[in-house]
Amino acid sequence: MRIFILLSRIPYPLEKGDKLRAFHQIRELSKNNELILCALNPNRKLNKQKAFSAVQPYCRSINFIDLPWYTSLWNMMLAFFSNIPFQSGYFYNHNANKKVKALVDEYKPDHLYCQLLRTAEYVKDINIPKTLDYQDVFSHGVFRRMNRSSFLMKILLKMEYKRLIRYETKVFSVFNNKTIISYPDRALIPHPEREKIEVVPNGVDHDYFTPRDSKKTIDLVFTGNMAYPPNVDAAGFLVNDIMPLVWKKMPDTSIMLAGASPDKRVLALKSDKVTVTGWMDDIRDAYASSRIFIAPMQIGTGLQNKLLEAMSMKTPSITTPLANDALKAKDGEEILIGHTKEELAEKILLLLTDTKIYEKLAVNGHRFVKLNYSWEEATQKLNLLIHNTKKI
Question: In 108-150, which residue ranges form alpha helices assigned H by DSSP?
């Protein structure tokens, strides 16, 4: 089958969750299908040649469409008056739309696969069977951010939240198939037939994220795109709220905040006990050099890839119920879960002092992700869904 894949971002490098998901799905779908890749590009600094080389083995045709920043700002203003979400406006461009339509006419695909709501405007009127990957529930992610934002930002987020609620419902009927990353996320989609959305989880590349026998030079690590608001929030919560409780009992405990594009609020957390790395060429070095991985997520939605990667490398992990709702690991057996800053500090101290529990979590967590999270199995579910598409 010939599948036209439309993405809101070029799926390389793999520093963002949507790019990671897209890259591995492309790799797996290419085993049984002919792929035409069309990726929008709002990032002028991206090394497109390197990205092209990364996806070239899997695609018949690769098309990157640049989105100039000035047109994105203009289209966000147009979105204000057309009542669509601002982020849909940001990623929509009239010239890009003409290029997408021309590519569809040229390659005549059997199916359109679109990632995220941001791409829906491009294909809503194309009469070809199509699948939308909601991936996350954008509306609920924005809702969780509202209470932690400034007065002005709260007004903008509330407006975006209402638009997203309407849009998530509106596009439901446009696509033959809908997918999402987890069951908790599906339950948050504001549509009466949300049970028809297929859950296609993420996986982890177990051949890449393998355990290493490395010297542990850092006590705690938290990884992720450090410009992403839920990660910025979690980093601040870790350093400012959780760690003072840990430092009272173990004052030399060290932390690494590892990930691309650290926000100024993350950079401000640097100290003699807190390292902020910025972009790392190999994120495995962060996991391998750390005793414990922690993801103290307070806002955001979806399945945390960082947890899958850490556990695949046998790094004992701690998180919150918010993140584990999608993961479904067993508390006390495969992972440790803390609801409050006090509980999370307690879990950290436990793993730093109890070698028996430390080893149990390392082994059980590794086995859990090996058994339950595979890109091959997850994408096979998507492949079958596309091949068995029913008419609307």
Answer: 120-123, 138-146
Count of alpha carbons within 13 angstroms of residue 87, beta-carbon side: 20
| CB neighbour burial string for 117-134, b if at least 16 within 10 angstroms, e if fewer | bbbbbbbeebeebbbbbb
CB atoms within 10 A of CB 264: 8
Q: Which domain range does residue 297 map to? A: 218-372
Question: Has residue 213 been placed in a domain?
Answer: no
**Measured between alpha carbons, how far is 69 from 187 in angstroms, rounded to an integer?**
35
DSSP-assigned beta bridge partners for residue 131: 113, 177
251 and 154: one domain?
no
Cα separation, 286 vs 258, in Å, equals 7
Whether residues 379 and 312 share a domain: the answer is: no
Same domain, 172 and 229: no
- The 3 state secondary structure assigned to 48-85 is HHHHHHHHHHHCCEEEEEECCHHHHHHHHHHHHHHCCC
CATH number at residue 251: 3.40.50.2000
Q: What is the CA radius of gyration of the chain?
A: 21
Residue 262 is encoded by which pair of tokens?
A: 């650290």
Q: Kindly give, in sequence order, each residue whose CB lies less than 8 Å from that of residue 208, ignoring residues fewer than 6 positions away.
A: 284
Shared-domain flag, residues 170 and 268: no
Question: Measured between alpha carbons, how far is 225 from 278 in angstroms, rounded to an integer?
Answer: 9
What string of pLDDT tens digits covers the 392 residues of the chain?
999 999 999 999 999 999 999 999 999 999 999 999 999 999 888 999 999 999 999 999 999 999 988 888 888 888 888 889 999 999 999 999 999 999 999 999 999 999 999 999 999 999 999 999 999 999 988 998 887 888 888 999 999 999 999 999 999 999 999 999 999 999 999 899 999 999 999 999 999 999 999 999 999 999 999 999 999 999 999 999 999 999 999 999 999 999 999 999 999 999 999 999 999 999 999 999 999 999 999 987 778 899 999 999 999 999 999 999 999 999 999 999 999 999 999 999 999 999 999 999 999 999 999 999 999 999 999 999 999 997 76
Ordered strands of the 336-337 beta sheet: 274-278, 255-258, 218-223, 290-295, 317-319, 336-337
Query: What's the total number of domains in the chain?
Result: 2
pTM of this structure: 0.92
CA distance 51 to 64: 10
